[in-house]
Design a protein that fits this description.
The protein has 13 helices and eight strands. With 352 residues, the protein is of the alpha/beta class. It has two domains: 90 residues, no CATH class; 211 residues, Alpha/Beta hydrolase fold, catalytic domain (Rossmann fold), CATH 3.40.50. Strands 1-2-4-3-5-6-7-8 form an eight-stranded mixed β-sheet, with helices on both faces. Helix 1 runs antiparallel to helix 2, helix 4 packs across helix 9 and helix 6 crosses helix 7. The chain is elongated and about 85 Å long. The N and C termini lie far apart (84 Å).
Length: 352
């Protein structure tokens, strides 16, 4: 009799957790997430029933146990499953195939292979410089070097050399774990060494461009590598979650109770990629100063708000260009001529 009363709660919670698993499964491995969610739900329900069996003499509380269990499921998903999954995902980006080359858009280039100090091989291309200056161009999360070809075209037509490569664990580069930009100097240092050895590049005229998490890589690298004389980042609003606080972007304030989640995702990312400490954006910009940094912020209210905050805190070396009608890192397509003008003017002014 007792077993028959236990089975329905086990099945019900298993189904609830399977549905939750299906939501995560939309990012890949649907069946695995559903089965895993069901098994976890049954285990939780069994433990829950064992705990509440001792409270059977309190009928009101005992009857509420299914509702309380669903609440526990909800809290576990919010504050444990989501952070752990987000952290694992941040440290293990999806690889996207490199399907075109600069030659396909009538651009001469050289194949490049860089090796980092920790043994990671980075696959890339180099477009030789015509004016003595060179830019390192970095793509965003789960991307590859083809994603900065529009920017490369603009720079190449203006005479700049461009070194674009797949960041570790992405594209055709080796490595299985991504540092999420926090150890950007590991990937950028060999790129600088490559450019310094080039006869067409002036050592005093090396800049860097980064999109989204590639921008985080660029900022973290620039804070440690003084050879980078000018930095452009597109789509960067924080280096760690604490950067979004004090004050918080207006659109985030209504979800203040969710603040622990991104904080825990950061810590879970550090758990999976082995990064021990991350710097705040304020620390990075202070270390980069007096070298100039240009933030490009697109339509996301938080990007623009954060960019304005960075300029206010570091007016001596930080500037901001806003493209409110563009989506994340799509300003180069929405305002192509203006984007080119802003980027080129910035590099021309600061890589003389």
């Amino acid at each position: 009799m007792m077993k028959s009363k236990i089975v329905p709660p086990l099945l019900t919670n298993g189904i609830v957790c399977a549905i939750i698993g299906a939501a995560f499964g939309s990012y890949g491995g649907m069946l695995t997430w559903i089965i895993g969610g069901f098994i976890l739900g049954v285990i939780l329900a069994a433990a829950w029933e064992a705990i509440f069996h001792r409270l059977a003499h309190r009928p009101r509380l005992f009857r509420l146990r299914p509702l309380l269990l669903v609440l526990v499921d909800f809290l576990l998903v919010l504050f444990l499953v989501i952070p752990l999954y987000g952290g694992w995902h941040n440290a293990h980006p999806q690889r996207v195939a490199v399907t075109i080359t600069p030659q396909d858009i009538d651009m001469a280039y050289e194949e490049v292979q860089l090796t980092t100090s920790d043994g990671i091989r980075l696959a890339g291309w180099y477009i030789p410089s015509q004016n003595g200056a060179a830019i390192i161009a970095l793509h965003g999360f789960s991307g590859n070097r083809t994603h900065v070809l529009p920017h490369t075209t603009i720079l190449q037509q203006a005479g700049y050399g461009v070194l674009l490569y797949d960041i570790r664990a992405m594209g055709e580069s080796s490595g299985e774990v991504y540092h999420y930009g926090w150890k950007g100097e590991l990937d950028v240092a060999p790129a600088i060494e490559f450019l310094l050895a080039r006869p067409d590049v002036d050592a005093e005229r090396i800049g860097i461009l980064g999109l989204s998490s590639g921008g985080m890589t660029a900022l973290n690298a620039a804070a440690k590598l003084s050879e980078l004389r000018a930095i452009v980042v597109d789509g960067v609003e924080a280096n760690r979650m604490e950067d979004l606080l004090n004050p918080m972007p207006p659109s985030y304030r209504q979800f203040w109770f969710m603040a622990p989640i991104p904080w825990m995702i950061d810590r879970a990312t550090m758990l999976f990629n082995g990064v021990v400490r991350t710097s705040s954006m304020d620390e990075l910009l202070a270390q980069i100063s007096p070298r100039p940094v240009l933030f490009i912020a697109s339509g996301a209210e938080s990007e623009i708000f954060q960019g304005q905050k960075f300029v206010a805190a570091h007016p001596e070396n930080v500037s901001l260009w806003e493209i409110p009608e563009a989506k994340h890192v799509e300003g180069v397509f929405v305002r192509e001529e203006e984007y080119a003008a802003h980027m080129l003017e910035f590099f021309e002014d600061n890589l003389k």
